[in-house]
Amino acid sequence: MKTIKILGTGCPSCQTTEKVVKEVVKELSIDAQIVKITEIMEIMAYDVMSTPAIVINEKVVFKGKVPTKEEVKKILLDTDSCCEPRDSCCDSTNTNCC
């Protein structure tokens, strides 16, 4: 299961980003947990200074504007084959790992 975090303080752009991500996850039938992060200190821990932002499995993959559905689809499909952080394929020799 993917963990998708939406980083943002709750502004309209952040709310729209969350909506778009949820729609795409549903359309693509992706097994994902979607988490909203609104605390500014938590957001800054990801080195994000411009919201909204999207984090997948602890990697910032998009930030600074509301993504289109097509952008979110591309992000999710590009990372769909990525392994989870603890999988054995995630080592320094595997260049295909996230």
Characterise this structure.
By secondary structure, the chain is α+β, with helices and mostly antiparallel strands. It has a single domain, classed as Glutaredoxin, CATH 3.40.30. It has 3 helices and 4 strands. Strand 1, helix 1 and strand 2 form a beta-alpha-beta unit. Helix 1 crosses helix 3. The two termini are 15 Å apart.
Write a concise keyword list for the protein shown above.
35% helix, 98 residues, alpha+beta, globular, single chain, 3 helices, Glutaredoxin
User: What string, H for helix and E for strand, traces the elements in order?
Assistant: EHEHEEH
Based on CA inertia axes, which overall geometry fits? globular
Strand-pairing-aware structural class:
alpha+beta
CATH architect. name = 3-Layer(aba) Sandwich
Roughly what is the average pLDDT, rounded to an integer? Answer: 85
Number of helices: 3
Q: How big is the Rg?
A: 13 Å
Unreliable segments of 5+ consecutive residues? 81-98
